[in-house]
Amino acid sequence: MPVVSKREAARRDLVEHFVYLAENAGMDVADRFLACAESSFMDLARQPKMGAPLKLKHPDLANIRKWRVKDFDNHLVFYEPRLDGVSIVRVLHAASDWWELLGLTDA
Questions:
Q1: Which terminal CB of the chain, N or C, has fewer other CB atoms within 10 Å?
Q2: Does domain 3-102 have CATH number 3.30.2310.20?
Q3: What are the sequence ranges of the domains in the chain?
Q4: Quick one: pLDDT band at residue 81, thresholds 50, 70, 90?
């Protein structure tokens, strides 16, 4: 079975999104968000190349890719493919300044 690992920043992102959704849309939506995020992570672990590759300035993030959380299209998953699955780097809202947070180049 493919492995999904989450970096500390990704775990914090998930908690922040959960709290926001719970406060603004209700617990059912927040719970559904976490379930959909986990499902999306497993999909990525099974097919790690399905996300769009990004070009980042930071060499440690050279292989990062972007995907969306299933049923929550405004929430983006930034991850790195691994031999045994994926490493989830961040889970950010599409309206956030994610290109700055991740150090995207103009190219």
A1: C
A2: yes
A3: 3-102
A4: very high
